[in-house]
Description:
Radius of gyration: 30 Å
Low-confidence stretches: 1-17, 29-37
Mean pLDDT: 86
Strand content: 5-15%
Helix content: 55-70%
Oligomer: single chain
Distance between the termini: 42 Å
Order of helices and strands: HHHEHEHEEHEEEHHHHHH
Shape: elongated
Number of helices: 12
Amino acid sequence: MPDTAFIRDADPLAEESTPPHHRHRHVPGPQTDAPPARPGMTGAQAVVKPVFTVLVIGLAFVSVFLAAFHTPTAHRLPVAVAASDHSAALFDVKLQRIAPEAFQVDRYPDEASARRAVEHRQAYAAYLSDGGKPRVVYAGANGPAVSALVAPLASVPRGEGHKIPVIDILPLSDGDSRGLSVFYASFGLVLAGFLFGQMTYQVAPRLSFGQRVLSLSLFAVVGGLATALIACTAFGAIPGPFFGIMGIITLMAGAVAAATVMLIRTFGPVGVLLGSIFMLVMGNATSGGVLPPDFLPGWLEPLASVMPAGVGVRALDGLAYFHHDGLTRGIVILLAWIAVCVGAVYLLDRIAASTGIAHAAHR
């Protein structure tokens, strides 16, 4: 049976009865394989803007990381002391001679509580001299920087020329000799989260809110699972419960991705610049994965307790070594990042939809 459209076009009566403003005539154009023209910047703006944007990101990375790590200095690291008043005072004086302002002495009632403070990351080392031979214990899981700072404490004389033994009671795992695996795992997913937030608007700018949240959730879960399989199962670099580590990495990836989506949804192309500076540069520099936050400059240290990378790294360390230190706080803060950012995107989408309906009604 022939197509009804061709029958109507062949019928002169039908054509005469059709009003002129309803008639459509197809004018064939030149055939080409070239892609359609894409809107964008031209002229001097197109030359200068990419240079400016990339240099701002790159120089921010150089400046922040050099500020954080070019000469890292410990700032009053807590050291637990379980000893008599006299022994504690002498130990404090000798600490200040070894590294002024690097340590802060906190008194504990007995050796068990001081040792527990080290195991739960409330102190970086402990001086134990409560009824036994003096000794210093520390957690090597805090990383090589802390180990190097604690090692000279062996030079503190115990008396009669003897030195105090320094004992690592919480060493790094065999698969993570430099203590950087948590940082690398978190950095990889933080970078992926930023890239997801950027690409989701480049590839699908008109995606509905529900579909975008579904895509974000899928990215975070699959990314967390894959990273945990690589870091925990394949390399054995991060000890601890598999699903706990996967869960924290999932929340980290989701928080960074949601924050990037929110910034781009709010500020447009400028949101990419803001996301790269805050989520990637500031977040990773203050994460505590390379050095504990107590080694950071004063203006950077507070970010470690609120940025997704910082609270995520501490929660991962707590799962792997420090008896869940920072785990509850990390989960709460990461969930708050996700909820606030997703909520902001939802509100912006609703406002945009309401504005579009209002404009259509007034036409």
